[in-house]
Amino acid sequence: MDYTEHNNGELRRLHPKAKQATALTALMVNGLLTLLAIAYLIVAWVKEWVQWPGWMGVGLFIISLIWYTWILPGLRYRHFSFRVAEDELEIHSGWLWQTDTIVPMTRVQQVELESGPLLRKYGLAKVSIVTAAATLHIAGLEREEAEQLKRNIGHLAKVEDHDE
């Protein structure tokens, strides 16, 4: 089944699990940074160093943790959509700074499928569309849907698939 026929040219959203994968990534990064700031505070207390940089770090990383773990994943999910048509790929993203991108299929040079450890944990993958001007990403699709999207964009753009 052709991906464009399956979706009738409608705007599509990412899989809801994409919110969880994004939140888990943010939790790991910001949690580590918060722990490093706490470690600095402990060393600063023992060695009688200045403590205010550690307290600023802890405060900023906790705010960052809340923003990137609980707020931003939902905003990204709600404000990201894409559409594949026979002659173009359209991507809408952004909450404050909204971006609407249309890429003619004739400009697509390469289509890649990636799935790192966190995306694999949730059964998700990322499709990267490479043009001469930019690389666009659609991260957070179910693995099977991502594979279908990659094949169909490659077919529509007449890009050779080396996996087959």
UniProtKB/TrEMBL annotation:
Q: Which keywords fit this entry according to its UniProt record? A: Membrane, Transmembrane, Transmembrane helix
A Pfam cross-reference name:
bPH_2
Stored InterPro entries: YdbS-like_PH
The residue ranges crossing the membrane are 21-46, 52-73
Q: Which residues form the YdbS-like PH domain?
A: 77-153
Keyword Membrane, does the record have it? yes
Keyword Magnesium in the entry? The reply is no
This one is known as PH domain-containing protein
Q: Which organism is it from?
A: Paenibacillus xylanilyticus
